[in-house]
Amino acid sequence: MTTATPTVGAGVQATGTPGRAARVRKRLNSRTATLVSIVIALLWTIPTFGLFISSFRPEDQIKTTGWWTFFSDPQFTLENYQEVLFSTGSSGQLASYFINSLAITIPSVLFPLAFASLAAYALAWINFKGRDWVYIAIFALQIVPLQMALVPLLKFFSTGVTVAGVQILPAWDLVDEQKFAQVWFAHTCFALPFAVFLLHNFISQLPGDLMEAARVDGATHPKIFRTIVLPLITPALAAFGIFQFLWVWNDLLVALIFAGGGDETAPLTVRLAELAGTRGNEWQRLTAGAFVSIVVPLIVFLSLQRFFVRGLLAGSVKG
Amino acid sequence: MAFARSRQALAIAGVLGLALGVTACGTGNDKKSSNASKPECAAYEKYQGHDGKKVTIYSSIRDIEADRLDQSWKQFEDCTGIDIDHEGSGEFEAQLGVRVDGGNAPDLAFIPQPGLLKRFVDSGKIKEVGADTKAMAEQNFTPDWLKYSTVNGKLYGVPLGSNVKSYVWYSPKTFKDKGWSVPTTWDELIALSDKIAASGTKPWCAGIESGDATGWPATDWIEDVLLRTQGVEVYDQWTTHGIPFNDPKVADAVDKAGTILKNEKYMNGGFGGVKSIATTSFQEAGTPITTGKCAMHRQASFYANQWPEGTKVAEDGDVFAFYFPAVDPSKGKPVLGAGEFVSAFADRPEVQAVQTYLASGEYVNSRAKIGDWLSANKKLDINNVPNPVDKLSVQILQDPKTEFRFDGSDLMPAAVGAGTFWKGMVDWINGKDTTTVLNGIEGSWK
Q: Is residue B22 part of a domain?
């Protein structure tokens, strides 16, 4: 997060007059500014921190007093975690929904990455008729809210496609864990416009001399893509990968509709939403449940975050 | 390149994770086989002949209550070989519409709002119940109940569970210590409230915060009071929009509810003033009764599960409930309640068999024995109901003097009953006057 400050300063310098920009930059780098940003960061973290403390408190404590009483009257228990992770019946078992979440998320990240990088390369470096219009169409698709596509897409899976009484595509008729395929399909569809846009901007900025030199040496498009483009766009791939991973991991709506709520396919988020019980009287479980579901995105984000800022900036400057 | 290697690792991890996921899901789907010849299966003979078929059920029931459902039809599954696949979701009301429109409807749904049920009937999605199911339902339920799932003279759903909302929770222990007695008329209720208020304790506590559904506990208050001041006929006209929402009779009932809900002398024990009602969650609202900071809390029978762990719910225990008294007991005994209806989106024979079974005496007794559940089904044996509050509810529901009416906000169109009515009640608690609030709700009922 601290890397953001010099970036802002640089941006101001580029557009404003040098004298004023330098002053702003200086001010943003001062001790007071650092102190203020630390205070803001702390304030923002307090609710999460409180939730974290709460997840280790006994049920009756959570329900009657605030998390801060932990400091005057510390009572520590792992019971909440025990309950949500391993208890039998439908009150827990987050452990097994964890696998479902991974089974949904990993393909839903890899598919759009693969398709979008190929499409972006073609749109940037292969000359064909109507290329700009295809790009504009994909760009425009970004503004379609996915909620509009839910019912049509569900119909597409359950009844197939029929035009004027003629069955063009059959129904998918998937049961139980086969429904993962529907979720992958849906997430890939919804991710592609943004992925193509982001990667296209990145790929089109690569120096044309590189491609020309490769072509002179006799490299074909697949060869160029594999040996030159892919290694160069890894920051963008990683940035989009994190983005898509977090979005899919935290998604409730798409999974609820296309995977259903059965224990074969439902991801963590669906389970988490039901954890509190029919009338919400077991909400103390949500504290521990939230932290169980946070672990994986945290690991992914922290291990790949250095690409995140770099990749996003590189892709967006031109657009 | 270091990054190329780590990307390779990522890909391997991905493939591994996928493989693990698939194998984890591949196991544990054993085929059910019918044990029709066993002696305990004699009762299920009429549902035989659908061995190996699967029926999907969608409902808003989840967590421990969903486990109990699975347990309640276990024997039926073993004997008939029908596999019942139940799925509960907190987003049931919204999701059901999406699934039905998307051609992915469940076989059966437990619909808690007659208003929603009618909407699906109007769009031709719900199938009329079969002849066997209809006979079973008419035998086991009063016409009062069946009318909520009847559209144009045809039956589209059978009632399942029920709850009774006309309850005031109190502490038998505190009442005994202080020498207070349970009121049986409205006047006694007010006299008791004044007495408790004079002793320095706030007599009532309430809370209407409930996430997206904030406001619903207050709508129950209004409905209960309207049933008592005007009787069931006016109530029926009101819920079907036969009289406007802001009719003077309704305004009168709202004001009467206000003499308790918006009375600073009465409210809000353990939490603060009247305005704290809007920010107190309904799950916690009755808790001050256990600490003596509040004496009475009007809430439905299902509130029995909300008390802190270790609270004894019984007539001689820490908390119990009494019937919310009528204004004029000679005019009958109106009871506000709710429940869910089993409606079918498919008419395959095994779906009808399950629907019939859910309306039968065998089913309700099997479910009631597991606990925390009751039904208006006439075949329900009160001795099979373990919980004292549920016992009282069954007595009330089976009492011939009882005039049962369904929760009005579930009968109205969703935009009103689950929208402006809820929000209007929040404004009303926060100080808006009755006329403005009721006019606003009436204006939203198109």
A: no
Distances (CA, A) of A283 to A15, B12, B62: 51, 38, 13
Domain boundaries, chain A: 94-316
Indicate if ipTM > 0.85: no
pLDDT confidence of residue A84? 85
B212 touches chain A (CB under 8 A): no
**What's the CATH fold of domain A94-316?**
MetI-like fold (1.10.3720)
The H or E element containing residue B108 is strand B108-111
Q: Centre a 10 Å sphere on the Cβ of residue B266 and count the other Cβ atoms it contains.
A: 24
d(CA A198, CA B291): 59
Name, in order, each residue with C-beta under 8 angstroms of B287's C-beta and a sequence gap of 6 or more.
A64, B270, B307, B308
Interface of A with B in 228-287 (CB under 8 A): 231, 234, 256-257, 260-262, 264-265, 270, 273-283
Chain A residues 75-94 with CB within 8 Å of chain B: 89-91
- Nearest by Cα to B90 from A268, A228, A277: A277
Do B343 and B275 lie in a common domain? no
Cβ-nearest to B61 among A60, A278, A282: A278
Give just the sign of the alpha carbon dihedral A240, A241, A242, A245: positive
Q: Are B160 and B344 contacting, i.e. CB atoms less than 8 angstroms apart?
A: no
A257-273 tens-digit pLDDT? 898 777 788 898 888 88
In a domain, B26, yes or no: no
CB contact under 8 A, A257 and B99: yes
Helix axes B2-26, A94-125, angle to 10 degrees: 130
Average pLDDT over residues A1-18: 44
**Nearest neighbour of A279 by CB, restricted to B88, B104, B305:** B305
With 0-12 / 13-18 / 19 or more C-beta atoms within 10 angstroms meaning exposed / middle / buried, residue B161 is buried
Strand ranges inside chain A, DSSP E: 161-163, 166-169
For chain B, 446 residues long, the average pLDDT of each consecutive 10-residue run is 49 48 42 63 88 92 87 93 90 88 92 92 94 95 92 95 94 93 93 93 92 90 93 93 94 94 91 91 90 93 86 91 88 90 95 96 94 92 92 91 91 90 95 94 92
Residues B58 and B122 in one domain: yes
Task: Say how far residue B254 (Cα) sits from the centre of its chain.
Answer: 23
B207 within some domain = yes
Question: What is the reported pTM?
Answer: 0.82
How many whole angstroms separate alpha carbon A248 and alpha carbon B69? Answer: 31
